Amino acid sequence: MFGSGKASTYESLVRAYTPDLYRFAYWLCRDRMLAEDLVQETCLRAWRGWDGLRDTHAAKQWLFTILRREHARLFEQARPEMVDLEDEAVERLAGHSLQPPLEAREAVMQLPESYRLPLLLQVLGGFSAAEIGAIMDCTEEAALARVSRARRMMRQALDGPMETKEKTR
Q1: Where are the domains of the chain?
Q2: Distances from the Cα of 167 to the Cαs of 13, 24, 163, in angstroms?
Q3: Does the predicted model carry a pTM greater than 0.70?
Q4: DSSP structure class, residue 58
Q5: Which of the following CATH numbers is that of domain 1-99: 1.10.1740, 1.10.8, 1.10.3470, 1.20.1300?
Q6: 3-class secondary-structure state, position 33
Q7: pLDDT-based confidence at residue 91 (cuts at 50, 70, 90)
Q8: 113: pLDDT confidence band, cut at 50, 70 and 90?
Q9: Domain 100-169 fold
Q10: Triad 131, 137, 141: Cα angle to 5°
Q11: What is the dihedral of CA 137, 140, 142, 148, to 10 degrees?
Q12: Are 135 and 124 in contact (CB under 8 A)?
């Protein structure tokens, strides 16, 4: 189907981005097995659509877009039952700690999805505002505004109780 050059390029790109894809998938669904399935489905769809990728420099963005769409497809069907997972098991699989402080993790999960996803794409994926806009199907300015609002909401969520405590002193 593909020449050996295309296959080896595909394989090296997928290997390079799989840990980032897994972290992003885990943040989206909070389920280790489902995150693995999402990454696997992303890789399968990428393989099938490899000829459609014109620029391998855009592969990371392309893979994250596929993953986000795969996650969205879950909600077109019945929502899967979520299972709690020990954090150490996830950290072992990812090769490093995924856990931010509990308050920060809870604050991220409380953000509306339209703000949470761009923030996670920037923080976990390292994407620019232009890349986030392309992944989220919005303008660069809208992506930048969403990330900015998400960060402001996070600061308010994390600093709010401390400000209240300081005012009462």
Answers
A1: 1-99, 100-169
A2: 52, 38, 6
A3: no
A4: G
A5: 1.10.1740
A6: helix
A7: low
A8: confident
A9: Arc Repressor Mutant, subunit A (1.10.10)
A10: 60
A11: 120
A12: no
